[in-house]
Amino acid sequence: MTLRGGDFTVRRFAAEDAPAGDAILRAAFAGSEDEYPEAAQAAGRGLALLAQTGHHLLVADAGRRLAAVARWRAEDGVATIDLLASGIPGAGRALLRGVERTLQEHGIRYARIAAPDGTLLEDLFRRHGYTPVGRAPAVPGGPLMVTMERRLPLLTVREQRREDADAIAALTGEDPWPFTQGRRPGWFVLADGDRVVGAISVRENGRGLARVRPPVVAPGYAGRGLEVWMAERAALHAETDGALTIALDATPALEHLRRAFEDRRWFLEGQTFVKHAAAHPPPAEDDTAWR
After folding, report:
1. Cα separation of 274 and 238, whole Å?
2. How would residue 283 be classed by pLDDT, with cut points 50, 70 and 90?
3. pLDDT tens per residue across span 143-153
4. Rounded Cα–Cα distance for residues 28 and 35 (Å)
């Protein structure tokens, strides 16, 4: 996973990030042991050890320089973000959004983060859509901390609706008028909450063959594997309608996703990804949430 936003690239933590990441963590949380005891413990253990023991760590790069680090964990559909530390202005903001996008892709609906009560940091998280849900000291007798929560938009691939017409036209260059007349069979959109950020379609070519139009996604959504998920939704529709073989042109934009396609039994034949339908495909669903 690599996400680009502004001047920063968000990606998974790698072993070679440990020295720079540890330095950012120590500098950010020095003297804040009462507010963030887990950060002090993490700095002592080191990010490399955390990664080796199953912790979810993301980093933000500014060019070739490590700029920020964060950790997240989830339980019962609620994620906690902590160890959010930045060494360059703006990197923490970019990384927070990157973590939120990652949570969406795991089907997580709520994100939580903590800030000292009544501080500029609390105001910053409020501006990013977080609202207080509780206040308590992190350690007995310590300063009051406010736990803040944000409900994340649901990321789905669903059937096209009338109100999606303009967004589909903007993404694909198609005439919006046919879409305003109702649902067009075989057309699906990638929706981030109420916002349409991708489109894909599939149609029968006869003799049991269906062709999937290469998926189109809005800037900021490419490179996250969402195109594979969209292709899977289109293929499911085609299988349900009786297609035996589904084909998708292997465009340059999809080259880096070859492994992800192969993991879902799309195999490259020449310049085309080909998938053979299951003997008994499951029934299609109108809405599919990203998992």
Report:
1. 13
2. low
3. 999 999 999 98
4. 12
Question: What is the total residue count of the chain?
Answer: 291
User: Would you state the structure tokens that stand for residue 260, as one six-digit string?
Assistant: 């992800």
- Cα first-last separation, the chain: 15
What domains are there in the chain, each with its CATH number? Answer: 2-113 (3.40.630.30), 155-289 (3.40.630.30)
Among residues 146, 81, 68, the alpha carbon closest in space to that of 108 is found at 81
Backbone dihedral angles phi then psi of residue 179, each to the nearest 5 degrees: -75, -25
What is the SS3 string spanning the chain?
CEEEECCEEEEECCHHHHHHHHHHHHHHHCCCCCCCHHHHHHHHHCHHHHHHCCCEEEEEEECCEEEEEEEEEEECCEEEEEEEEECCCCHHHHHHHHHHHHHHHCCCCEEEEEEECCCHHHHHHHHCCCEEEEEEECCCCCCEEEEEEEECCCEEEEECCHHHHHHHHHHHCCCCHHHHCCCCCCEEEEEECCEEEEEEEEEEEECCEEEEEEEEECCCCCCCCHHHHHHHHHHHHHHHCCCCEEEEECCHHHHHHHHHHHHCCCEEECCEEEEECCCCCCCCCCEEECC
Q: Is the pTM of this model over 0.85?
A: no
Residue 21 has pLDDT above 80, yes or no: yes
Structure tokens at 17: 């990030």
The answer to whether the beta carbons of residues 158 and 286 sit under 8 Å apart is: yes
Q: Is 206 exposed, middle or buried (0-12, 13-18, 19+ CB in 10 A)?
A: exposed
Distance CA 282, CA 237 (A): 10
CB atoms within 10 A of CB 236: 22
CA distance 130 to 112: 8
